[in-house]
Structure formats: C-alpha cells, structure tokens
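cache lookup: miss for this entity combination. No prior model stored, computing from scratch. Input as submitted by user K.M.:
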Amino acid sequence: GNSVTQMEGPVTLSEEAFLTINCTYTATGYPSLFWYVQYPGEGLQLLLKATKADDKGSNKGFEATYRKETTSFHLEKGSVQVSDSAVYFCALREGGSYIPTFGRGTSLIVHP
Amino acid sequence: DAGVIQSPRHEVTEMGQEVTLRCKPISGHNSLFWYRQTMMRGLELLIYFNNNVPIDDSGMPEDRFSAKMPNASFSTLKIQPSEPRDSAVYFCASSLGGGTYEQYFGPGTRLTVT
C-alpha cells in the first residue's frame, strides 16, 4: 500500500532561518504529491503540489521538488517568519484514485 | 466561493447522546470526505463519497458512526450513542476529482464528549 513518512517534529527555528521538512513516500503507481498547512484552530489548506517527476511546486516562498529517483518531496523555505508557525502535512494521491495518503504532520515553531 | 462550511464549530455533549455534524461542500465538487483528527491517531479518513454515493467507509470506527449525503450540497456525520473516546476534531473536505486535484478542508467541528 501507499505510505508517506515525514520527519518528526516539532521543528523549532528562529525567524529568517532556512527550513527543510523531509518527506518520503511509497506508492505503487505515479502519484501527485502535495503539501498542506494547518494553522492553529483551522482546517488543512493546500500549500503547493507537483503532479509529475521533476516538477517543482511553489507558493508563499515555500518550494518542493518531486524527486522520483529518491521518492521524496522535501519542503523548503529560505527565510521563515513567525507567521509560518503551523503543522505541515505531506500527502500523495495516485492517478485515478480519490483517496489521499497523508503523513503524520510536522509541527513548525518559529521564534522571533 | 465560501469554501467548505461545517457546523457546528464546537459541540459539547454528554456520553450516550446523539451528535450530528454537518457539511456543505464547495459547489461543483463531486467528492466529499470526512476525517477525524486527534493527537494520538493523527488524521484519519472515515468515509468518502463520490457523486453523493458512499464509496469507502472502511475508516468508520464502528456501527455507532453513520454518514449520509442526500444531495450534492449537504452531508452529515452522526454518532449515536457518543462516547468520550469520540472526542476529536472532525473535518469535512471536498474535491473536484481524484488524482491531481487537491482537497479543500472545512474549519472543522471540535467535539467534546463528557
């Protein structure tokens, strides 16, 4: 079956630090890959996505590249802000499938 | 668009009572999902509907849980009778399709069963 593995949190950074949250996956086919963000007290919202190998998704300064050879989709941001404090979920969805597979989520805490 | 709408946002009830959670998906979306989120178990898919038909309910914990989608703009998740271990945040999400399409989540209903 499909699975998504994320690094354990919390990740604690100072403002303007570089962020990497690792995500690796196992899938039987050729999935689309997603990063969702959940701010306190809210539902998940899409941050970025990539639908095929070597695609780079980007949004709000965050980036992730779909690496088929390493089955990875690591999330990066060059300079984090306090407002980026949230829980980040990596997810995949196989082509033709309606059911996504989510990772456990990684909490990010950014201090001023 | 208003996004996915859920009600109530908070529900506190006593053990043994019936609880009904409501969801209005985004207009035009053909898939609807119910999730449960707890610290211990993370995000769990309970059931999903495609074109108002339940397709996969293997995540529904037990017979006390039931879900319906009488039309494309409304779904309910019912727990009867409720138990303290049902305390969690319940999310509804909708999607335009499978595969490359992302899900849109509602704000969630925080359920507390005492």
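stored under new cache key. Chain A touches chain B at residues 32, 34, 36, 41-46, 49, 51, 89, 93-100, 102, 104-105 (CB under 8 Å).
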